[in-house]
């Protein structure tokens, strides 16, 4: 949500208000931007990196919790509580803001003297460029490595491992369910055995459906985040030439993929998880509506206390 709030005004600024190359700088068409516009671009760039990274690691945390709920159930039930969820969220925001400090020091606003393509008169414009500190202390290269490895590739590998673990847990759950269904049929009193085995089977189907939803979210995440991580890593290895020749050319595509990933994730959660819909309604509906639906609020509170999903 925060990424969208920052990116939508930036998209209007970049592709609507400043869509024409109306200035010349060293015989190259460039965009003439005001100081306020370029400052917002810098703030938007840093803010979207922070909030998107927070979202990335919260996705990893959610997958870890789901893996514990599927494989360790009773032993780790106390870990899936609102208190631990709040601690995880706070840690994600604080640690991301600290880790992104080299990214804040990489770019800054620079004043340039350009020429208007319409009148031919000199004009003052502003652009984003690398800071002096980034050249002398190699913060720029360090920032690329942090962004590519810690913010992109490590979460991708972690989610891949969790996806494999969840798939294995799904197969084991299906095997246990088949054994549970086959056991009463091979013994006397099959009718009573089938009746007692039905509620666990329904609960297991609900758990499997939620796990499949999370697997879909994880695979979509890998498709959208892994290319950005590889390109950032190559930019850190090969330097400015690769960054300007390749990364900047596909930067808008990577941004669109990240936004699509966030939007589709929300749709997947709402469409495939009844628990998520109830919890979302409890958190974001007005209080007077919650008083009119006490049953829904009670059920959602129970869901939060046991799963935090």
UniProtKB/TrEMBL annotation:
Domain G-protein coupled receptors family 1 profile: 50-269
Transmembrane intervals: 37-64, 84-105, 144-171, 213-234, 246-268
Compartment(s) where it occurs, according to its Swiss-Prot or TrEMBL record: Membrane
Keywords from the named record: Membrane, Receptor, Transmembrane, Transmembrane helix
The protein's name in its UniProt record: FMRFamide receptor-like
Organism lineage string: Eukaryota, Metazoa, Ecdysozoa, Arthropoda, Chelicerata
Residue ranges, compositional bias (Polar residues): 184-195
Cross-referenced Gene3D superfamilies: Rhodopsin 7-helix transmembrane proteins
Organism the protein comes from: Tropilaelaps mercedesae
Record keyword DNA damage present: no
Presence of keyword Glycoprotein: no
